[in-house]
Fold:
Amino acid sequence: MKITVLTLFPELIRTIAASSITGRALADGRFALETVQIRDFAGNRYGKVDDSLYGGGTGLLMQCEPVWQAWLSAKEQMPADARSLVLSPKGRVLDQSLVDELAAAPGLILICGHYEGIDERVLEAIGAEAVSIGDYVLTGGELGAAVLIDAVSRQLPGVLPDESAWREESHMDGRLECRQYTKPELWRGRSVPEVLRSGHHARIAEWRLLDGLAETLEYRPDLFAGLDLDEDCLCRLWEHIGERRRET
Ligand SMILES: C[S@@+](CC[C@H](N)C(=O)[O-])C[C@H]1O[C@@H](n2cnc3c(N)ncnc32)[C@H](O)[C@@H]1O
Structure:
């Protein structure tokens, strides 16, 4: 997997991606990351890549030609079936199913807007798919690209030490993960649920399943509504929720 980011702020992408698990994955060659400075394709000696809006309005818009040239230069170095995405608040909202889909692509070109965004014509010419990281407006696409790179790269083979590390995490199968605890066993009067200290694998697995469902119901009733749970599972879940309430 190769990811190339077209941006006016390559240092932002490189700084974020160089840390933690992403940084290690890059160092180990689990995926490749390149940045392309759109300003290098400005075609003028000032590096100017934006201009005022037709029809009036405040702010500046990134112009077609520098983005187009930057994209062509990235495309040349990419597998033919790489996907081109533009970060945009109008786009398909990034969720785990989109992350999984993108992690299966041979390459991604991420285009980051700034100012008022990017002239529509170049996005049409590229056929860029718009992706949003949520229903709010950021100053630029770089943080969105960094979020996408983080979420996608941890799905790639060998990036996390063990597949179970992410298979059981929230959103992997439309539900949230159970509550989690580490040492000490007792912290300021609050103890770790007894079952997790019991060493009884079957009871622990059952607790994890039910607690994940309880978390989903509490925090994301919209996700819970989409789960297909039989009557027996629902009965065990209500019992578990009763125990959670007694705990607190
Ligand atoms: C200030 S925004 C432009 C917003 C645009 N004028 C609009 O109202 O749709 C500048 C850039 O930030 C990025 N951006 C802003 N919000 C985003 C979001 N929610 N998800 C992904 N990228 C975003 C995009 O690349 C966008 O071109």
